[in-house]
Amino acid sequence: MATTIWHNPACGTSRTVLEAIRAAGIEPVVVEYKREPPGREALAAAIEAAGLTPREAMRKKEGAALLADPGLDDSALLDAMAADPALIERPFVFTPAGVRLCRPAERVKEILPG
Prior knowledge:
With 114 residues, the chain is α+β, with helices and mostly antiparallel strands. The chain has one domain: Glutaredoxin (3-Layer(aba) Sandwich), CATH 3.40.30. The protein is built from 4 helices and 4 strands. The chain has a 4-stranded mixed beta sheet with strand order 2-1-3-4, with helices on both faces. The chain starts with a strand and ends in a 13-residue tail after the last strand.
């Protein structure tokens, strides 16, 4: 399994995480998830593998109205994120050691070698 980052180059945290991966001697597969959004199934799998709920994986600012609606279940939130990748919190990093939503950026260290 190659190391992969769902990256947003406009995001400082995402850039910091990408730099940390490269500093560890790894050249990751960089997926600009807003340009190449993950499908709903891939998104659901990433969220589950990271030990999160869809509510925890949604950007707070962009998803504020959705998050404020207690009537929306996980399925509805996944549908919303799949339809609008700007709602997905970033960056997700995938390595052989696991999947993390690297916010704060230091979380990437949990799944990098050494």
